[in-house]
Amino acid sequence: MLLALLALALIAVALAAPMAAREARRWRKRRSGRRPTADAALDVPMYDPGRERRAEQRARELLRSCVNDEEWGMYRDLGFIRVEGRHVRRAADGRVSRAPYAYLVYPHKPIVAYVPESGQLLSEYCVEFPDLGAGMGGRSRLPASDDVLAKWMALTSDEARVIRRANMHLVGRQLDPARVRRDLWRLAEWERRRSSGAVGRSAQ
Amino acid sequence: MKPGHGEVLLAEGDPRVRQDEERLVREFRRQLDEGMWAAVPTVNAGSGRREAELIREYGEIPPEAERVIFFPRASGG
To answer: What strand order describes the sheet that includes B36-43?
Structure first.
């Protein structure tokens, strides 16, 4: 009788062993899922305080390689670039003269349209280049110099398209008109000094 | 141009080499599919002024272009 019970117990243990092993595996898996492994911890992006500075440095080099010397000097010395309008004036005799308007391109600020001859401010165009594929609702920003380059490329290649996409306002909504007028004065001074050779053209 | 990173090299190669060109075309289309704009810095033959040329298809890239720059498309801010 005892021998029969022992045999039955052994058979029961043998039958239950695979189930017990399966349950043990599941339990281990659930446990490891709750506790981050060392590898998973390494996947967490760490804050790199130098990343943005390096990105801006690369962006400045890229901008410099695309625009001309005057525009680069303007950005380096004044912090903005002037882009002439694309719609040129055609005189009665067929001669083409400069466009009657131009833009001031600031990093991460609206583009300002103005009349170079009179200094009259026309409007500000709010435009941005969001990373639509990124998280945070696409609110990740380009480095400052990349933002200027993107505006420069958009304006010089297809002015109508970028202006159509921008939100247009009278100057004063985001930018202080007095500050823009001061920038125009700074630009005029910069050009005067540059034409007289006072601004170092080879300075970096 | 990649927000938060700046310039990132996506692909490079000699477009005269077939395998390279296939790779460049693939990357070009992928960027446009992701909603980027493509432009090539050029010099205006008439005015000598530097400007950019917007590229909508791989075939529009000027043969002498050394690079194509992709940047996020503009939207109202």
So the answer is: B50-55, B36-43, B69-72
Residue in A closest to B41 by C-alpha: A66
Dihedral sign for Cα atoms in the order A47, A55, A82, A186: positive
8 A C-beta contact, residue A140 and residue A129: no
Smallest Cβ distance to B7: which of A62, A128, A158? Answer: A62
What's the complex ipTM?
A: 0.89
**What is the distance in angstroms between the CA of the first residue and the CA of the last residue of chain A?**
100
Is the separation of the CB atoms in B71 and A158 below 8 Å? no
Taking a C-beta distance cutoff of 8 angstroms, is the pair A67, A75 a contact? yes
Q: Which of A196, A154, A51 is nearest to B36 (CA)?
A: A154
Closest CA to B39 of B66, B65, B68: B68
Residue B40: beta bridge partners? B53
SS3 A82: strand
Tens of pLDDT, residues B36-67: 999 999 998 877 889 999 999 999 999 989 99
How much is the CA Rg of chain B, to the nearest whole Å?
A: 13
A57: exposed, middle or buried (C-beta count within 10 Å: 0-12, 13-18, 19+)? Answer: middle
Let me know: does A136 contact B9? Beta carbons within 8 Å.
no
pLDDT digits (tens, 9 = 90+) for A37-47: 555 555 556 66
Interface residue A184 vs chain B (CB under 8 A):
no
Half-sphere exposure of A28 (CA within 13 A, CB side): 6
Of A192, A154, A164, A193, residue with least CA distance to A66: A154
Q: B37 contacts in A (CB within 8 Å)?
A: 153-154
